[in-house]
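Re: the request from the purification team.
They wanted to know what the chain is likely to look like in 3D before they choose a buffer screen. I agreed to run a prediction and write the result into the notebook, where they can find it.
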Amino acid sequence: MDYQAKYRVKATCGNCQLVCWKTRKEREYNYELLTTSGEVIQDQGLGFKVVKS
């Protein structure tokens, strides 16, 4: 295996860190929050707000 293949890093969104908790019940709850809470958008005044999807 060459050096580049051995040390290649695949970047991800990091959402798995938000979902992965100790118990299955906590993971299911966190996944539900992640998939149903909406999205954060930047408004014209350079602020941020959550918009339900």
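For the purification team: Residues 3-51 form one domain.
Please add any questions underneath this entry.
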